Automatic annotation (TrEMBL):
CDD domains noted in UniProt: pepsin_like
GO molecular function, one term: aspartic-type endopeptidase activity
Protein's recorded name: Acid protease
Start and end residues of each Peptidase A1 domain: 93-411
Keywords: Aspartyl protease, Hydrolase, Protease, Signal
The family this protein is said to belong to: Belongs to the peptidase A1 family.
Signal peptide extent: 1-19
Residue positions of the active site: 111, 293
InterPro entries: Aspartic_peptidase_A1, Aspartic_peptidase_AS, Pepsin-like_dom, PEPTIDASE_A1, Peptidase_aspartic_dom_sf
């Protein structure tokens, strides 16, 4: 149903794209080599079961990656659907971003699993002296929503010392599924923009990180992401550092790992890892490929690994929330998970595996429930996307997305062993 609506609206839009007259571009030069963008974590269950939303996102990411791979040969001339990535609005990270000169502020979801930046879902976009229409229709379907609009180039201000000139963005004429926000700030790999310009199905669009680097604003095309565990429905607990790493947020050197060679994880911020449980090292997930993703709420693992984790912990599915529930007796014996990436091991503690009790009621649970954040990705291992280290994992570790060197970094923080949940 969503596909039919999206395609109908897209077809109608292609017949009536309107373009404003071009205006002069103002050049802004910024010399800082590293700067930080704060963001707010927002929680909004909206009656959805978090595991179902996360599995839908995982399926969408997989389908989009397969579309990119099949298109890379250019052997067919038919246009595939623009994008199938799914925006998870159960937990979202929202930053205030300026567009235009003088800039208008838009609240945009930060997403490492998609790469288009667009505005206009809620607050209407207004042209300024730096706005230039391109006459290019743009469309992205997210599974849980979509936007159809037009591409513009404009000045984008992430922070006073993070200003991008001539950034190609989308301006929504129609959108669905983005209540309470104005659009997306996409910071995933550039290839994820392929096909989002309707008239150029194999073309890509430089991301905001690409342009910060090419314009000399940052010295390295590197993004560092930090946020602390949250137990409230809205919390200003995070920051993104463009151009480097915020050393004040880490308690060890960042450990870097190459982007996996395994498709479909290789299309995203993908790594190879294995997971064991407890001091005896019970295997939960053998070494395989998956991704690090800010847009997924839970720690998702392949179905066979999820079954192994359920058996090891004595947990059972809670029908109301869709999360694993564990008895006080079994919880007393719950042990850490250990993530083995390259030559490094990261401990995911008992508390880290626990859904914040302060948020139980928000997802339909009770204050006495003990719920866990490990979820089933929906497919067995060996599919090329066998885990997603999502929000609940990244609360405990600083993450680095290094485009220049095609690698992902992880480091412990002061919150890795927090006892807050």
């Amino acid at each position: 149903m969503m596909n039919k609506l999206f395609l109908t609206l897209l077809s109608s839009f292609l017949l009536c794209v309107l373009a404003a007259p071009p205006t002069p571009k103002t050049l802004v030069q910024v010399r800082d080599s590293r700067a930080t963008l704060p963001f707010v974590t927002r929680f909004n269950a909206s009656g959805s079961k978090i595991p179902e939303v996360d599995r839908a996102r995982a399926a969408g990411l997989r389908e989009h990656a397969l579309g990119i791979k099949s298109d890379s040969s250019k052997s067919t001339h038919g246009k595939r659907q623009s994008s199938f990535t799914v925006t998870n609005q159960v937990v979202s990270y929202v930053a205030s971003v300026g567009v235009g000169s003088p800039p208008s502020s838009f609240n945009l979801i930060i997403d490492t699993g998609s790469s288009n930046t667009w505005v206009g879902a809620d607050k209407q976009f207004q042209s300024t002296q730096t706005t230039e229409p391109t006459l290019e229709p743009m469309a992205v379907e997210y599974g849980s929503g979509f936007f159809v609009g037009q591409a513009f180039t404009d000045t984008v201000t992430l922070a006073p010392d993070l200003v991008i000139t001539g950034q190609k963005i989308g301006v929504a004429l129609l959108s669905e599924g983005f209540q309470g926000v104005d659009g997306i700030l996409g910071v995933g790999p550039t290839d994820l923009t392929e096909g989002t310009l309707v008239t150029d199905p194999f073309g890509t669009i430089p991301t905001v990180t690409d342009n910060l680097f090419s314009q000399g604003t940052i010295e390295e095309e590197v993004l560092g992401v930090f946020f602390a565990p949250t137990t409230t429905e809205e919390s200003a607990n995070g920051e993104m550092t463009f151009g480097g790493i915020d050393d004040s947020k880490i308690t060890q050197d960042v450990q870097f790992f190459p982007i996996t060679a395994t498709s479909t994880a290789s299309e995203f911020w993908g790594i190879d890892q294995s997971i064991t449980y407890g001091t005896e090292g019970t295997t939960i997930l053998s070494s395989t490929a998956g991704i690090v993703d800010t847009g997924t709420t839970l720690l998702l693992i392949a179905t066979d690994a999820f079954d192994a984790y359920t058996a090891a912990t004595g947990a059972a599915l809670d029908s109301t929330t869709g999360l694993l529930s564990i008895s006080p007796e079994n919880y007393a014996n719950l042990q850490s998970l250990f993530f083995h990436v390259g030559d490094s091991t990261f401990e995911f503690t008992k508390n880290a595996q626990t859904w914040p009790r302060a948020l139980n009621a928000a997802i339909g649970g009770t204050s006495s429930d003990i719920l866990l954040v490990v979820g089933d990705i929906g497919t067995n291992s060996g599919q090329g996307l066998d885990f997603i280290n999502g929000f609940t994992f990244l609360e405990r570790f600083y993450s680095v997305f290094d485009t220049t060197n095609k690698r992902v970094g992880l480091a412990t923080t002061a919150h890795t062993n927090d006892e807050v949940n």
